[in-house]
Amino acid sequence: MAHTSEQFSAATGIPTSGEVLGPRALNRALLARQLLLQREKRLVLETIEHLVGMQAQVPGNPYVALWSRLDGFQPEELSHLIVERRAVRTTVMRTTIHLVSADDCLTLRPLMQSVMVRTLANTAWARNIEGVETASLIAAGQTLLEEQPHTRAELGTRLKERWPDRDAASLAWAVSYLVPVVQVPPRGLWGKSGQARLTTVESWLGRPLDADPSPDEMVLRYLAAFGPAGTADIRTWAGLAGVREIIERLRPRLVTFRDERGHELFDLPDAPRPDPETPAPPRFLPEYDNILLSHDDRGRIIRDNRGLPMPAGRGGELGSLLVDGFLGGMWRITRDRGKATLVIDAGGSWTKSEQWAVAEEGARLLTFMAADVQDHGVQFRTSDL
Fold first, then answer.
1. Cα–Cα distance between 228 and 222 in angstroms, integer?
2. SS3 for 240?
3. Strand order of the sheet with strand 97-101?
4. Tens digits of residue pLDDT in 39-85
5. CA angle, corner 49, sides to 173 and 309, nearest 5?
6. Pairing verdict, β 255-259 and 20-21
């Protein structure tokens, strides 16, 4: 049970400190905000915005992530949003590819510009183009990408015409960090494939980037989707500098807690914090999901705060599994002679009821992921997770 000794701000009446939240309390709060305690009836675009974007390095990952969160999700809904340019694939938090709404792209990408510049500066690509004038490179890259979408290889070839003594790949990667870009369809569409072709955010959306985006609002949205959280968690999620200053500005609007190690945690006063014993059904997550990647202290989702086991290989038909709310296994779909088998590597000991629940949810996953074949099977293996 949590121990409470609340104090209140004289100015706001908001609780300011005292309650200790253990890993299970933090877990249930996180699951509630991530829509993983029960599937919800929400619009797809509303959900993407609520989650402040979704990890999308592997194009199919957001589809699995939305299927696990939304009641009656149909993948064509997301594909339609991408084709209509209401949702886009772009580089934002942690300089990784995310699926975000068009509105969020225009706001979040400018906030990440300093992170993109800082990250690029620490790469071999930056060293390979040292001496190239940044403004000229940005202008040349924008012009090429607005003429038509390019793969990085195509972009590098064109840029090398101007800088023949430079590495083409490094020129292209530098542009993709320094210039706000999106990946255009068919990349990211359900059942489709295509190379990652880039164009500029503003040309694709036909609107300008936000000239004065609010980092404070971004942090509030993070807390709504991932809180309660500490400053180190926020930095891990976004890569932003100056998080402590943002939190101090926001402090009068926030409630604070402590974790079991005494670290201060911040949250929105009215955000859900369910009872730690709230039942949590099994949930299949994609290869990359922000619920596993957005905290410095992952003890709220991975027991004993162990490292995150990333699946070997890529392709979208593999990922991780939550059992009783925590990382409890890994999964992979194999296909052979017209049969799709969900192979589950179970970490730790499960109760019989948990195994039955996982098998039932796994059968539903196969219906979603392998609708093209009739023969489905679920196989369990023991794993040292």
1. 9
2. coil
3. 54-55, 97-101, 87-91, 181-183, 198-200
4. 999 999 999 999 999 999 999 999 999 999 999 999 999 999 999 99
5. 60
6. parallel
185/323 Cα distance (integer angstroms)? 35
Mark 353-384 as b/e (b = at least 16 C-beta within 10 Å): ebbebbeebbeebbeebbeeeeebebebeeee
Express each pLDDT in 144-191 by its tens digit. 999 999 999 999 999 999 999 999 999 999 999 999 999 999 999 999
Give residue 247's Cα distance to chain centre: 22
Distance between CA 24 and CA 22 in Å, rounded? 6
Q: Is this structure's pTM higher than 0.90?
A: yes
CA-to-CA separations, 9 to 2, 16, 17, 248, 253, in angstroms, rounded: 21, 6, 9, 14, 10
The continuous run of DSSP H or E covering 8 comes out as: strand 7-8
Of 309, 101, 114, 134, the closest CA to residue 205 belongs to: 101
Which pair of tokens denotes residue 203? 């040309």
According to the model, what pLDDT value does residue 205 have? 98
Residue found under tokens 């390019």 = 150
By three-state DSSP, how is residue 198 classified? strand
d(CA 257, CA 3): 10
Q: What's the distance, CA 53 to chain centroid?
A: 6
Instruction: Check whether 12 has a pLDDT greater than 80.
Output: no
48: number of Cβ within 10 Å: 24
What are the pLDDT digits (tens) for 88-104?
999 999 999 999 999 99
Provide the CB-side half-sphere exposure for 314 (13 A, CA): 7
Nearest residue to 76 via CA among 29, 42, 44, 106: 44
Residue closest to 308 by CA, chosen among 289, 323, 332, 333: 289
